[in-house]
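Recall that a protein's primary structure is simply its ordered list of amino acids. Everything else, from secondary elements to tertiary packing, is in principle encoded there. The following example makes that idea concrete.
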Amino acid sequence: MTLQQLRYAVAIAEKSSISEAAASLFVAQPSLTKSLHSLEKEMGLMIFRRTSKGIAVTREGEEFLGYARQVIEQADLMEEKYGSLPSGKHRFCVSTQHYSFAVEAFVDLLRDYGGDTYDFRLRETQTYEIIEDVARLKSEVGILYLNHFNETILRKTLRENDLQFHLLFKAKPHVFLGSRNPLAGRPPVTLQDLSPYPRLSFEQGEYNSFYFSEEILSTEECKKEILVRDRATLFNLLIGLNGYTISSGVINPDLNGDGIVSVPLDAEDTMEIGVIAKSHIVPGRFAQLYVDALQRHIPHS
C-alpha cells in the first residue's frame, strides 16, 4: 500500500467516478483502475462497488477511506513541517443548511489553518443532499436541524446512512425580516402578524417534503409562498418584498449587513441544530478544527 494509492482511492470517492478522478489527477484511467484493484487485493476488501450509475463506496470502503484520509492528512502535515518540498494542498468539505454561523466558522478555518494552498469547499445545499454528501464521504461533516416534527424521519434517514447527529445548540424560532419591515421593531411576532407578508423558504428539489424543509412550521398555511435556492436571493427578497423566513435567529451583521434583523417568533417549537458525521470514522484534523470554530459562533446558554 502506498500513499499515492490512498490519494487515488480518496479522489475516486470524491468524484464518484473513476474517469473523473483520473482527469482530476492527470492520470490515465487504466493506470488508476489498476492501482485501485491492486490496493483492494492487498487490503482484502472491496472499496467500491460498480452500479448502473457508476461506482459507490461499500460499507467496508467507507471505514477504510476514513482512515485513508487521516493518513493523507498526517503525511501532508509532516511534509509541511519537515519536508523540503512545498506543503501539500489542504482539503476539506462541509455541507450545510443556510446558516451564517457555518460561514463564519469556515472563514475562521481558512484564515487560521488554510495555509498557502488549499481546496476547501462549503456547500450550502438541500437537506437530503447534506445527508447524501456525508454518507458518500464527499463531505466530512454536515450541518442541519431536528425538531419534534422532522426528527423521526430524519433520524431514520441518518441511521440508514450510518450517520450520527451531534447537537451544537438549541434555538427558539425567530424570523428574519428586512430592517424596514413594519414588524422589525415589534418583537415577538406571531404567525398571524406575518400572514400579510410573503414567506420565503429554501427549495428542496426532489425531496421537497415538509420533513426535509429547512424552515420549521413549514406546514402552516401561507397565502404568499416564495421558494429560492440561495441565501443571497432570499435576503434580497426579504428586503425588496418585505418578506420573512423562519429561522434559528443567529445572524452576523458583519457578513450579512444591517439590512436584515432577527425577531423572536411567538411559537411553541425548538430547533436542535447539530453536526452529522459518519458513525465509525474518526473525523480528520480540519473537521475537528471546523467544529471547534462552530462552537465560537453559536449561542451558549
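Residues 174 and 264 are 4 Å apart (CA to CA). The longest helix spans residues 59-82.
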